[in-house]
């Protein structure tokens, strides 16, 4: 038995020596493998060498980072920026954005235009054209209905440009496609404002329901729930009876009206919808016109319009009471129409500043009349959202005052008289440059409002696709409600610089 154990121990020693020798051999082999040409190792070695600088371990990567990066030389003392630093940065960013705005756009948005039945498109345009000269057709406040439709005719200008022959189009920011699968966005060419004002009430509601069914039956609408569809509803009363069923679509609006008088909560918000300017009622006063009219601008502050309005527009009567009889101030009661147009144009071209208080809604066509007239807008509308504000800086062409400040005795006139002549001249020059962004035309022109619509839409595309794809994969019954709605308070402070 003892002899047998001795034999086993001898064999164990031999196996130990053999395994040690074998390990030493492989260690030697791998240590000098770079000098060997063994085919079976060639790929693994080259692969290892190729990834030698890639670290997948946090600790290893951190050690390498700290060994190759030096800490900042300055100390840790916090230095607060001054107001001048903020202003200089703001100016530099503004100049950069302007340069980018005027650069060529090489990536147009692709839009599919629905070929809707004529009763939603051409028939309504003919209805407007055939009744345009009926001057007796007035709204409840005395404004000509057709002029009101014209102010909100953004649906016509966009559609007319999209369907024009490519040989006649000028814009490079958008191209019409003829297959749904090629489209980024889908345009709904329904003239909601014309139908609202020129059709009998029940007939109009019936047409709205037909339009709703026609659009929502389309495969593109069913695919996205309407998130990539553009719906022009520029007059706040238009399409009101059915628009809750199309609240996912991108609405083209005159403002947001966060008071809830015209749009229900959750229907409109900046991240989804787009604000478009009214069509100006007055003729453009270009740079040459400005140089000719500037010596005649003797009126400090001008306003012409309805003095009594509803909802947020009640501030008008309070401002009238505060400003009436003040030196350099001209306030007139007036409505639209040829006589009103001439009076408004004359008053604006003879004034330095034009008062723009809220109307029934936070916005008013008067703002854009002032811009094209070279009259610096003084905006007193706390809930106002402005067209293309992601592109245009309105501080360059307008002054803003909160309702609270504007109603303080003497505050507004003191504020305006404190604006230096150099600042007034600079803003007038900016008005001459900015006015092109508010002039609708056929064919649509680069940097006109139609062009800026598509430049703004380009910024919405990624978010539209995100919510479209998200809606396609959420599980039924899950907490799938997701909204981009962002409604911070829109407080306004005076701007001088």
Describe the structure.
- One of its GO terms (cellular component) is Golgi membrane.
- GO terms for molecular function: glycosyltransferase activity.
- It comes from Lupinus angustifolius (Narrow-leaved blue lupine).
- Keywords: Glycosyltransferase, Golgi apparatus, Membrane, Signal-anchor, Transferase, Transmembrane, Transmembrane helix.
- Belongs to the glycosyltransferase 47 family.
- The protein is of the alpha/beta class and 497 residues long.
- The chain folds into two domains: 200 residues, no CATH class; 152 residues, Rossmann fold (3-Layer(aba) Sandwich).
- Helix content is 43%, strand content 10%.
- The chain is built from 18 helices and eleven strands.
- The strands form two sheets. A six-stranded parallel β-sheet has the order 2-1-3-4-5-6, covered by helices on one side.
- It is globular, with a radius of gyration of 34 Å.
- The termini are far apart.
- The N terminus is likely disordered.
Order of helices and strands: HHHHEHHHEEHHHEEEHEHEHEHEEHHHH
Structure summary, number of beta strands: 11
C-alpha Rg, in Å? 34 Å
The level of helicity is 40-55%
Strand content: 5-15%
Q: What gap, in angstroms, lies between the N and C termini? A: 107 Å
Low-confidence stretches: 1-5, 23-50
Compute the number of structural domains: 2
Overall mean pLDDT: 83
Structural class, judged by helices and strands? Answer: alpha/beta
- Identify the strand order in the major beta sheet: 2-1-3-4-5-6
Largest sheet: 6 strands, parallel
Count, helices: 18
Shape: globular
Pfam family, one: Exostosin_GT47
Protein name: Exostosin GT47 domain-containing protein
Keywords: Glycosyltransferase, Golgi apparatus, Membrane, Signal-anchor, Transferase, Transmembrane, Transmembrane helix
Family: Belongs to the glycosyltransferase 47 family.
């Amino acid at each position: 038995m003892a002899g047998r154990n001795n034999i086993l121990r001898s064999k164990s020693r031999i196996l130990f020596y053999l395994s040690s020798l074998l390990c030493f051999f492989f260690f030697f082999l791998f240590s000098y493998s770079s000098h060997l040409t063994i085919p079976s190792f060639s790929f693994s070695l080259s692969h290892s060498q190729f990834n030698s600088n890639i670290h997948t371990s946090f600790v290893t990567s951190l050690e390498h980072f700290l060994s190759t990066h030096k800490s900042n030389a300055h100390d840790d003392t916090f230095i607060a920026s001054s107001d001048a630093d903020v202003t200089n940065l703001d100016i530099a960013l503004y100049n950069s954005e302007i340069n980018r705005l005027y650069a060529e756009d090489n990536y147009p948005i692709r839009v599919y235009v629905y070929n809707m039945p004529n009763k939603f498109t051409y028939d309504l345009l003919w209805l407007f054209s055939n009744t345009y000269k009926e001057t007796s057709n007035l709204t409840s406040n005395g404004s000509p209905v057709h002029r009101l439709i014209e102010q909100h005719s953004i649906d016509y200008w966009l559609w007319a440009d999209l369907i024009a022959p490519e040989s006649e189009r000028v814009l490079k920011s958008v191209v019409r496609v003829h297959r749904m699968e090629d489209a980024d966005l889908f345009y709904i060419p329904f003239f909601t404002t014309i139908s609202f004002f020129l059709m009998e009430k029940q007939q109009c509601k019936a047409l709205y329901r037909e339009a709703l069914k026609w659009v929502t039956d389309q495969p593109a609408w069913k695919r996205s729930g309407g998130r990539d569809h553009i719906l022009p509803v520029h007059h706040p009363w238009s399409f009101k009876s059915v628009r809750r069923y199309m609240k996912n679509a991108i609405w083209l609006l005159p403002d947001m009206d966060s008071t809830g008088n015209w749009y229900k909560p959750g229907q409109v918000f900046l991240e989804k919808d787009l604000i478009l300017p009214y069509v100006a009622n007055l003729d453009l006063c270009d740079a040459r016109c400005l140089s000719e009219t500037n010596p005649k601008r003797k009126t400090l502050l001008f306003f012409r319009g309805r003095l009594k309005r509803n909802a947020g527009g009640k501030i008008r009567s309070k401002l009238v009471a505060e400003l009436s009889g003040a030196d350099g101030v001209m306030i007139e009661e007036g409505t639209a129409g040829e006589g009103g147009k001439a009076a408004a144009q004359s008053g604006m071209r003879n004034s330095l500043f034009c008062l723009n208080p809220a109307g029934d809604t936070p916005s008013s066509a008067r703002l854009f009349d002032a811009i094209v007239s070279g009259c610096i807008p003084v905006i007193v509308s706390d809930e106002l959202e402005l067209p293309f504000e992601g592109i245009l800086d309105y501080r360059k062409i307008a002054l803003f005052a909160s309702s609270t400040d504007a109603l303080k005795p003497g505050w507004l006139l003191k504020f305006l008289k404190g604006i230096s002549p150099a600042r007034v001249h600079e803003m007038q020059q900016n008005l001459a440059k900015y006015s092109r962004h508010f002039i609708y035309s056929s064919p649509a022109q680069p940097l006109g409002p139609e062009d800026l619509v598509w430049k703004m839409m380009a910024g919405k595309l990624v978010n539209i696709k995100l919510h479209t794809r998200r809606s396609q994969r959420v599980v039924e019954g899950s907490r799938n409600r997701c909204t981009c709605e962002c409604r911070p308070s829109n407080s306004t402070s005076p701007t001088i610089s």
